[in-house]
């Protein structure tokens, strides 16, 4: 097969041509596979999928977490970090962290793949996944000997890992340092396991950041100039110490400045090494065409990111090299949140206008870049932090479309990015489409076509709600304009440290558990232990509102435990886990000499709980009110007895509860209970404050926690049996219980009080996104937006037949992707239970 | 006007319908039909009064229906799935009431105009800029024409776009009244040959075609002609050519012709309602054939769409 000529490509990729829609419908977009050129198709074919795979879901955190079988553990990063930390014993933490990063950029093996046009990867080989011994090693010996990583290392490597690396780190990791100071009474609540699986808080095992630097500024200045700027800041800081400044603070800032400068130099060093490698490969290359390409790579990396990019390609390459360093080499971060179609556009526009690049070439470059993002993949970490992101990868969410200064910000690059993702169909980078009615309909149609591919991309975000939420959280008005979505769906502010330090989501807990505790006066029915508060016997309740009050009390009691571990964990983290490269790139940290972790906690982040699921609670309350108090058909004795028996032998009674009004059908009776439930749970959660004075909040970014956590929750009055999942997201009705179609679902949602990061999953039959029906889908989206309280909606556009077929023959469907919750994953990487849940979600059909 | 509210039998209110007229719509399915098309996909729509339909997969084998049935028409042996002896069933509906699991369900609710309109209006915001609205379908909605008339009048009063999906088998005086409040008619032509029409539909096509001509002569009425394409019945060149000439004769009132290829989605509903599927074993029409017939109509300069 011959690769098409440049002109043909140009015609294929022309804006407004119908071919994009036609390709979206096909299982493979091009006859040669995934990617607009043969080069991309070949790179895509050789790509290693490195999503986190959970094989044994039944025991949750202690289950087997692994990667696909051809993936290996990257020992080089661990080795180098260990070496560096040994060398810097006794030095201040920021310096140690900065020095370790420099060592990685200087010595970590790097590679350039045959035919690739974009370089940069934080793993030292295409088939390897990095890990971070400095954060946590506690899980490793088990994982590599009998657990999910045992096939991923050689025997010698295992020996080295356990004997050398683990031995050095076991009492020095962040995790070990936090654990040392945890008081006995909350220890059991930090992990999945001892008391239950309904919640946990141990974010320090994987201190993710969601930094979203001001790329426009960074690219315009170049890294070299930025280092200068920080050197100047440091000089000013040292020139005169303000009388009001605490000497400890003064010294800390000195260390932070120094570390940031080292981190900046580390970025330059990595780019330099890629330039050297490319030049060396070029020398050896026989093929003239490839030789030239390699020379170009060398030239690009010699110029950027040190200097401001001169071309679109340089902008893309500069962006990615910096990302590799601060986001993936420094810490186990994920996120992005960058508005790619804004930050790259000036360079793209200039190149197109000058004719130095054509649209098809830009498309190919972006496709190459996307494959690099996909290949970055997930890293190794403790199994329980994996669990909520089963099948997930780095949540490298790219923001596109939306508005700037109140005007449509979408442009041709917006479409190129969507086309590129529709062509390569990888899970990364997921696209956050910033929906606003101002976005051009042509671009919207492209977004719908991308949806039609069935990859779960893009997710739609209600742009207007960004500012509403940001203001609610007390951010200054000028910052709210810089709002962006990072991670699967977390809010960040461009250039600021909001959520940029270690993970904003500090604990995971399902309110479903509070319902269980309220039904049993504080007793956890799974473990039999009394863990909650003393609330009254349900038999004494006057109505379902009394039950809800008890739920609120239980909720507050539980959140307090997570809050305490969060405060202690974060205090240790601020001291021992600074992130100088991330700090280097933000606006506020370099000016003040404060590290991002401290900055984000003190100034503008708030502690969030993930695991929001209110639908089971709402349906339970509605059923209790209707059957016990209004119809008086059932007594509390009967209900409690049936719940105690996990509904066994009580099928008739269970059917009564199952057929009571359910949230999601535009039925005010049930929907009102969803409103009450959410208000009470959020208020109870907000009554708890963190050590920095911020109220706890629920965050809709759930991962698969709504499916995972209920495994540790006993039977509930909505007819659910013990361990069965509830709804798949914070706004969604329970799976299969919304029977009146997607308009009724949206109407129900309209009634629910606004909460940030609210997530709605919907499934549609593919035909609904084809041809003229796209216009109706467009209209449907508009109404979703007009509802004004749903932040995020995402679609699965895959038939059940195909999903069931993929369960039977996973080997044939390695590329089949679905939207899980806030992220897309390869269907075959998901635990069977999550696969079943995706299938069980109501498929929105139409007559 | 008095407070008197007409009521009627409705067997489904389908929100988010996108194939029953323009835009996002709510389709109200009225019960009862004077026709007996052999291929009918909605057997539960034929009878005017409510009837039961079984959903075996939901049955929890509690035996309540067996104890309840006054006719002793339901039986089960040793906790296996209950069977209904339909010949004994007199549709008293008591079993459905007794069933805790929804495994026997009543098709057909007796609803007032207000109750129906209230549900239709719930999706009002989905109708606005893409001309969606309410569609009356069935059964044959005009078998409850007074109820249909009140529904359409009320919907028009609320500013909704209204669509009537009809076989046209009714008195012209009735249809004329109805059209006053109808923006668009989805009008079926099943066969141009009366003999064949009577064979498979069990009624004559004369009144149907005459009504269509009269409807088309009204200045305000828009029409989409709908043609079910049924194997071994009307999938012939001859019928399609005759039909094309006839439609051309109707003039400007007809916006387009929709081909609705025969499908068997309704088959399971027959046994679930104790009925026999007359078209058992009929093969579906190949896509190429449908495409051919579409092109045949298009050769008469008609606008033709598939399935909607």
Would you kindly provide a written description of the structure presented here, covering whatever features stand out?
The complex is a heterodimer of chains A (847) and B (308). Among the domains of chain A are: 16-46 and 336-483 and 768-789, no CATH class; 60-191, no CATH class. In chain A, 49% of the residues lie in helices and 8% in strands. In chain A, strand 17, helix 34 and strand 18 form a beta-alpha-beta unit. Chain A has 847 residues and is of the alpha/beta class. Chain A starts with 5 loop residues before the first helix and ends with a strand. With 308 residues, chain B is an alpha/beta fold. Chain B has 2 domains: 7-48 and 109-306, Aldolase class I (TIM Barrel, Alpha-Beta Barrel); 51-107, Alpha-Beta Plaits (2-Layer Sandwich), CATH 3.30.70. Helices cover 31% and strands 22% of the residues of chain B. In chain B, a hairpin with a 7-residue loop joins strand 4 and strand 5 (83-84). The longest helix of chain B is centred in the C-terminal third of the chain and has 14 residues, at 237-250. Chain B is globular. The two termini of chain B are 38 Å apart.
Low-confidence stretches of chain B: none
Beta-strand residue fraction of chain B = 15-25%
Q: Distance between the terminal alpha carbons of chain A, to the nearest Å? A: 43 Å
What's the arrangement of strands in the largest beta sheet of chain A? 6-7-10-11-18-17-21
Largest interface: chains, residues each: A-B, 23 and 22 residues
Strand order of the largest sheet of chain B: 7-1-2-8-9-10-11-12-13
Gross CATH architecture of the largest domain in chain B: Alpha-Beta Barrel
Low-confidence stretches of chain A: 1-13
User: What is the CATH superfamily label of the largest domain in chain B?
Assistant: Aldolase class I
Q: Which fold name is given in CATH as the topology of the largest domain in chain B?
A: TIM Barrel
Overall mean confidence score, pLDDT of chain A: 88
Largest sheet of chain A: 7 strands, mixed
Backbone shape of chain B: globular
Which structural class fits the helix and strand makeup of chain A?
alpha/beta
- Computed over alpha carbons, the radius of gyration of chain A is 26 Å
Q: Characterize the quaternary organization of these chains.
A: heterodimer
The first-to-last residue Cα distance of chain B is 38 Å
Q: Name the overall outline of chain A.
A: globular
Number of strands of chain A: 21
